[in-house]
Amino acid sequence: MPLVTTTEMFTKAYEGKYAVGAFNVNNMEIIQGIIEAAREEQAPVILQVSAGARNYAKHIYLTKLVEGAVADAPDVPIALHLDHGDSFELCKACVDGGFTSVMIDGSQYTFEENIALTQKVAAYAHAKGAVVEAELGTLAGIEDDVNVAAENASFTDPAQAVEFVERTGIDSLAIAIGTSHGAYKFKGTPQLDFQRLEKISQLLSGFPLVLHGASTVIPEFVEKCNLYGGKIPGAQGVPEEMLLKAGKMGVCKINVDTDLRLAMTASIRETLAENPAAFDPRSYLGAGRDAIRTMVAHKMRNMLNCSHRI
Ligand SMILES: O=C(CO)COP(=O)(O)O
Ligand SMILES: O=C[C@H](O)COP(=O)(O)O
Ligand SMILES: [Zn+2]
Ligand SMILES: [Zn+2]
């Protein structure tokens, strides 16, 4: 099947009380690892591209690789999504360039400015058959060029979320309930505001919610990075059981980037450390690709609960 939007994926996920994984992609090995996992697990999947990834790998290379993925896994529903679009122009370029879904992240603007920008993107994308995710509330952590300090992060207001969805006509909403981007999410015990999620979910009944900054930062992979020369002290993420619970409460899309980075880096470090004579990039990039596949399959089975859903 051709690339799809997220509409049907989210309807099924909402009804089935599970979430679809949205994985950040930057190169061929990452795309192939994710698609191999989706095919093995028979799970729908969202490939998402940040502005940084688009600059790194270039739009045309990424879309051609994704075209390859679609041909390689014809029975898997695959959506191609812009992650954290920060302007109308970027969203337009992605819609025009074959993406089926875009995120406009106006969360750093005032409520009214965020609404105006999101409305404009939604009108354009919908006219072209693409869908739109927007964000209300801000996450702490690093998003592209925006580094939001924890004290400037603000959780999503449930009443505002309803007004925002009604006025913008978006297809899904990213909310802030305590997750954050990157490998350092919590200093003490991990905690999410499930009461807030429940309230938003009640008020927006049936509407797909999105969680960003949802990597688990699995200790095994941090330790492996550190064992083979890395320096990633004190990293901590969102426990998988919390994400599984969120998936039962209206969260239909869960974003994962950091866990893929950690898995790939750990296996590349290990491969090079254990094979000092190796210098064929296929040896360590291939190991990195395998690590992505294993990590994504693990997420699909244990945290998203989206295996065997197609
Ligand atoms: O939200 C993300 C991409 O938009 C990724 O979050 P992580 O950094 O927790 O993987
Ligand atoms: O939310 C951010 C994602 O992890 C993408 O990160 P990036 O902007 O460094 O590509
Ligand atoms: Zn944001
Ligand atoms: Zn994000």
TrEMBL record:
GO molecular function, one term: fructose-bisphosphate aldolase activity
Binding site for dihydroxyacetone phosphate: G182, G213, A214, S215, N255, V256, D257, T258
Keyword Zinc belongs to the record: yes
Residues the entry annotates as binding Zn(2+) 2: D105, E135
Any Gene Ontology biological process: glycolytic process
Cofactor note: Binds 2 Zn(2+) ions per subunit. One is catalytic and the other provides a structural contribution.
InterPro entries referenced in this protein's UniProt entry, alphabetically: Aldolase_TIM, Class_II_FBP_aldolase, FBA_II, Fruc_bis_ald_class-2
Active site, per annotation: D83
Keyword Metal-binding (UniProt): yes
Keywords: Lyase, Metal-binding, Zinc
Residues engaged in binding Zn(2+) 1: H84, H181, H212
Pfam families: F_bP_aldolase (PF01116)
Cofactor entry: Zn(2+)
NCBIfam families according to UniProt: cbbA, fruc_bis_ald
Full protein name: Fructose-bisphosphate aldolase, class II
Organism field: Megasphaera paucivorans
Organism lineage: Bacteria, Bacillati, Bacillota, Negativicutes, Veillonellales
